Amino acid sequence: MDIIKISLLGICGVILCFFLKETRPEYTAFITMGIGIMILGLAVGKLEYLFGTLRQLKDSLPVEQEYLTTLIKMIGITYIGQFSAGICKDAGHQATAAQIELFCRLSVLVQSVPILLALLETIQEFMA
What we know:
Layout: H1 2-23, H2 26-60, H3 65-90, H4 94-127
């Protein structure tokens, strides 16, 4: 049922921006940011569930803490990057949004390199 709340919140924000676009276009970016922050606040419960599940996974499987930390960082980078780029696009700054998206992709790639190297090391051990 949370998806209904989130969807209605987003639709109300879009309708409000639509009405204010003609008279006060500068307020639409603030409304978009406010709606985004409220949705982020509602997503905290989902993040708590995700972290709990990752904790259970760590306890039940012999997975190194570093891998789960990297996974959480990647999730955070993608969410924050998408959120920021969306706000920039709504404000009419597509070039800035594209730069944010590019930086986030590169950041995720950098975060994944140690895991890729560990995987290659494991494959080499099996081959030897």
